[in-house]
Specification:
The chain has one domain: Winged helix-like DNA-binding domain superfamily/Winged helix DNA-binding domain (Arc Repressor Mutant, subunit A), CATH 1.10.10.10. The longest helix has 23 residues. The protein is mainly α. Helix 1 packs across helix 4. The chain is globular and about 55 Å long. Strand 1 and strand 2 form a beta hairpin. The chain contains 5 helices and 2 strands. The two termini are about 15 Å apart. The mean pLDDT is about 85. It has a two-stranded antiparallel sheet. InterPro entries: Metal_resp_DNA-bind_regulator (IPR052509), Tscrpt_reg_PadR_N (IPR005149), WH-like_DNA-bd_sf (IPR036388), WH_DNA-bd_sf (IPR036390).
């Protein structure tokens, strides 16, 4: 299981990527994150992130009818959201490079 501290920094970018690929709703986002190996992420964790993304004008919501049950809010990225996702990916590549550069240090860790 991924620690919550590490997860917090990653989820926003991952949610932006999911929404970039297709308009979607919170429950579907939580299911996709679980499929991608993040474990069970509740909608209660996802909603505050989505609200923050909306306040930052990175995503917009559209309410639509659902085939099963009440209406759903579908989220899509704004142009500002696409820029933010790009910046997240650039930062991710820099972090990935730094981690790979210190590979020897990580290989010497003793995992229990």
């Amino acid at each position: 299981m991924i620690s919550s501290q590490m997860l917090k920094g990653m989820l926003e970018g991952c949610i932006l990527e999911i929404i970039y690929k297709q308009e979607t709703y919170a429950y579907e986002i939580s299911k996709l994150l679980e499929e991608y190996g993040f474990g069970k992420i509740s909608e209660g964790t996802i909603y505050p992130i989505i609200l923050r993304l909306q306040k930052g004008e990175l995503v917009k919501a559209t309410v639509r009818d659902s085939n099963s049950g009440p209406k759903r809010k579908y989220y899509r990225l704004t142009e500002k959201g696409i820029v933010s996702l790009y910046e997240f990916k650039v930062n991710w590549k820099e972090l990935e490079h730094a981690i790979k550069s210190t590979r020897d240090m990580f290989q010497s860790f003793v995992f229990i």
